[in-house]
Amino acid sequence: MRFLAPLACFAAALLAPVMAEAAPVADAATLSAVKSCAPARPCNAKLPVRVVVVTMFEIGKDTGDKPGEFQLWKERRHLSETLDFPQGWHNLAYDPETGVLAIVTGMGSIKSATAALALGLDDRLDLSKAYWLVAGIAGIDPEDASVGSAAWARYLIDGDIAHEIDAREIPKDWTSGYFALHSKGPMDSTPLEPVNGEMFELNPALQDWAFALTKDMALPDDARIAEARKAFKGYPNAKKPPFVLKGDNLAAMTFWHGAKMTRWANDWTRFWTRGKGEFVTSAMEETGTFQSIEYLTKVGRADRNRVMVLRAGSNFTMPPPGIDPAPYLLGENQGYAGMTAALESLYVVGGKVVDEITAHWDKYEASPPK
Predict the structure, then answer these.
(1) Is 119 helix (H, G, I), strand (E, B) or coil?
(2) Which of 105, 179, 257, 339 could form a disulfide with 115 if both were Cys (CB 3.0 to 4.6 A apart)?
(3) pLDDT at residue 350 above 60?
(4) Burial track 243-280 (b if 16+ CB lie within 10 A, e otherwise)
(5) In Å, what is the CA distance from 82 to each residue of 104, 122, 187, 295?
(6) Does the pLDDT of residue 326 top 50, yes or no?
(7) Treating both helix axes as pointing N-terminal to C-terminal, what angle do 204-214 and 339-359 enclose, rounded to 10 degrees?
(8) pLDDT score for 4
(9) Beta bridge partners of 168
(10) pLDDT at 7 over 90
(11) Statement: 4-32+46-161+196-360 belongs to CATH 3.40.50.1580
(12) pLDDT for residue 23
């Protein structure tokens, strides 16, 4: 991770002046009262939460070693207070000065859904006005962006709810053996309603606001990803240095890869969004997380209109032209070329939005920006 030190300095330099302005939101007495409450039990005191940072995994320790999605937030955001969270995958981290809470859900839509629901029902926390920022690494479509780039999503599409026939047994005129539940085959374009959670739409005004706030930011780059993107001839966006864009997320529990699968992801996104969405990033968790937030909204424990999804490319969803997908995927599994850059992009871009919300809570407490 030889690029981590300079990138860390880059991020810290950008964010330090803003972070210093954050006002305390939880006093020592409230914090002490909350920490005396048992998890998943009634609690008379509640910690006010302004932003929930949702990460999905960590590598090794929470600090001081090779970082996963959680570590940079933990180390740089002074998330000094730990709340036991045995009903989830990982303990919570909280900053009483800013009201920022971070969760590590665990990987996959099952863990993310159950962790988000458990968090929302935790009586120690007041999440009724909290903004949720999902910040995770992803595969990224080279047609749209380069590794290290960060995409704000409007649509979350589920890639698991479907019919499937093994590719070796599909009819000759079928384009795929994978097609929408209740459709008549992969070429059936008859619109369907996403009643089973096949697609969710986030608050478009909040996405526009977050993108406008961050679109001109310079993102970290490094020699490793600069070299890797040179091979994507014919993909001009893939050859650019990392940048901020809008782009939708497809969540599927299977880690898929290749040009044909990337074409499927684009088709799947267009189908479920009725042509309005653009597939850019692939991950596993978003639809599970958001489904739980939808349920929590119904009982006043969360607000679905305050959810943002930011994914940064740690790897491409397909290999460069002329390269077989199997060895390319297996090589990436030994360590994503864009892991460091993606984590830094998530922190820098997501951090700017977190800072804006926490430092100007008087503007954003009553309702989301428009």
Answers:
(1) helix
(2) 105
(3) yes
(4) bbbbbbbbbbeeebbbeebbbbbbebbbbbbeeebbbb
(5) 12, 14, 51, 26
(6) yes
(7) 110
(8) 40
(9) none
(10) no
(11) yes
(12) 53
113: enclosing H helix or E strand: helix 109-120
pLDDT at residue 331, as a whole number: 86
pLDDT band at 63 (very low <50, low <70, confident <90, very high): very high
Encoded tokens for 183: 């459709």
Helix 286-298 to helix 109-120 angle, to the nearest 10 degrees? 30
Q: What is the mean pLDDT of the chain?
A: 93
Place of tokens 């740089």: 76
Q: Which two tokens stand for residue 176?
A: 């795929």
Burial class (CB in 10 A: 0-12, 13-18, 19+), 336: buried
Question: What is the spatial distance between Cα 326 and Cα 347, in angstroms, rounded to a whole number?
Answer: 31
CA distance 308 to 164: 31
**pLDDT tens-place string over residues 235-257:** 999 999 999 999 999 999 999 99
Tokens 């898929």, residue located: 256
| HEC readout, 55-87 | ECCCCCCCCCCCCCCCHHHHHHCCCCEEECCCC
CB within 8 Å of 20: residues ≥ 6 apart = none
pLDDT digits (tens, 9 = 90+) for 93-110: 999 999 999 999 999 999
Q: With beta carbons less than 8 A apart as the criterion, state whether 264 and 231 touch.
A: no
